[in-house]
Design goal:
This is DNA-binding transcriptional regulator, MerR family. Pfam families: MerR_1. GO terms for molecular function: DNA binding; DNA-binding transcription factor activity. InterPro entries: DNA-bd_dom_put_sf (IPR009061), MerR-type_HTH_dom (IPR000551), MerR_fam (IPR047057). With 145 residues, this protein is α+β, with helices and mostly antiparallel strands. It folds into two domains: 83 residues, Multidrug-efflux Transporter Regulator, Chain: A, Domain 2; 47 residues. Helices cover 61% and strands 10% of the residues. The chain contains five helices and four strands, in the order E-E-H-H-E-E-H-H-H. A four-stranded antiparallel beta sheet has the order 1-2-4-3. Strand 3 and strand 4 form a beta hairpin. Helix 1 crosses helix 2 and helix 4 packs across helix 5.
Length: 145
Amino acid sequence: MTGKTANALPLPPSAHEDAHHEPSYTISALAKEFGITTRTIRFYESRGLISPERIGTARRYSKRDRARLILILRGRNLGFTVEDVSDYLSLYDSDPGQLAQTRHLLDKVKAAIAEIETKRHDIERSLADLAEIRARCEAHLKKNA
């Protein structure tokens, strides 16, 4: 046996194992994996959202950095600001007793949910309107064909 368990998952193609058998990722590999630019990743780094290890001029991103990047991208796709995402990520690093910060984040999440629910309602209404127009057009074409 090679030391791997039967249930072990292979590393993503962007991963490299270091001397401690911890996968690490290059900036270009992460950018390619997530469909973003290296400049975007550097921006998140400059804002303190991720902190790769520096080896000379190269950056090596850990599994933790990759996981945080996933959370950052999810948050941004949901319409959260970089500051909101930073607040969210700080909960992972903070003292569990920071209840005020958690309440503040909860308020932002509730507001985002309400906004998305409103957008969903608007989209559903638009879809219904378009379906009605389509049905009328199809009926008109069928009648006059």
